[in-house]
Here is the input.
Amino acid sequence: MTGAELAERLIEAARRAGADAADALAVSSRDVSVSVRGGALEEAESAESLDYGLRALVGRRQACVSASDPSDAALEEVAARAVAMARAAPEDPHCGLPEGGLADLSRLPDLDIEDHAEPPLPAMLKAMAAEAEAAALAVAGVAQAESAGAGWRRSDIAYAATNGFSGAYPRTGASLSVSAVAGEGLGMETDYEYASRTHFADLPPPAEIGGTAGARAAARLNPRRAKTGAWPVLFDRRVSGSLVGHVLGAINGSAVARGASWLKDRMGERILPPGFTITDDPHRRRASGSRPFDGEGMALSARKLVDDGVLAGWTLDSATARRLGLPAPGGARRGVGGPPSPGTSTLDLSEGAETAEELIRAMGEGLIVTSMIGSSISATTGAYSRGAAGFWVEGGEIAFPVNELTIAGSLPDFLLRMRAANDADRTRGVIAPSLLVEGLTIASG
Here is the structure.
């Protein structure tokens, strides 16, 4: 039985149980993962799973139930439970299925997110992980590889609803990672490198992954204290996507509808410098976030959430769009355990004209952030505080590593002072270049 057939059977069971409307999501996956330590196999896993979720609607009440047993008896039980729970749930005047804008299954884009090559054998994954680990250990100063792993995954996603939509699509993914430890005793430092692609053949060479992880760990040895005060901060492209994530959280339609967003009254206003555009692109070929339709079966197209620095749109599902009195643009995310919610696909922040090295020279003295720990972000005011580590810059050049520091500021203020480099990694789910921000407060621990 395919995922599409399972989703449709859930819909039929919900109808028999008395639901006025319903939708269902079925996800089947096959995973293979291998990790090595000291060149020897440490762990190998191969797993297959099937999970599904049913949302039943009775009037303006809804409830979700998830399970993994595809037997007829289990499907009937899940449907009966979902309908009973919906009848007991409080009314939500905005819940319901989309009222239009469903994807045309005869005209879905070719996203190339399924790798048709034979899945890699565990022995091949082990060899890749071992090669990456060896490359990390070959870097001067690296004492050990904390972990090295490789994996492959295939998922089949199917969605069906009582409004007549029924669609499915596959996706694959491959990954390779190394975490390296440099130094000894209390002077140990760790760093990593990680790569994920939809196609196995697109992964970087294992030696490149391991060598990068080792070099990063060794570069962090013998850290010093950063200077306290207001300084320029360059967010390396490894972490700059977190700033896009903070904007994304503030333009989430659910947060806006609750009034829990520092951007709730800023539609049409400038929130980023001129030239900064954030695009949600669901149709980027071979991208891990791409998908042919959203979590409610709606058609998808590229949207500018921020256009030339001006806030241009909220992220919405159909229920949140109704609550805000707006048309639903498509973009909902859905898991088997709950109803749809506002979501995105692949986010792309436009690049600048300068290289990261030019921005470092321009900052003169300040901080390069390469890793972040924890966060304290106010959803309503945008007050920002995060633990960080990286490198101190003097005379426009990297001088020494720093750690145990905190950077703080106000997102509504400092986002308007950003400068972008031209070094975005276009293989990531959030594509963002290195970002230079003037005048953040740095406190060294």
Summary: The mean pLDDT is 96. Residues 277 and 350 are 5 Å apart (CA to CA). The chain is about 20% helix and 35% strand. Residues 72-88 form the longest helix (17 residues).
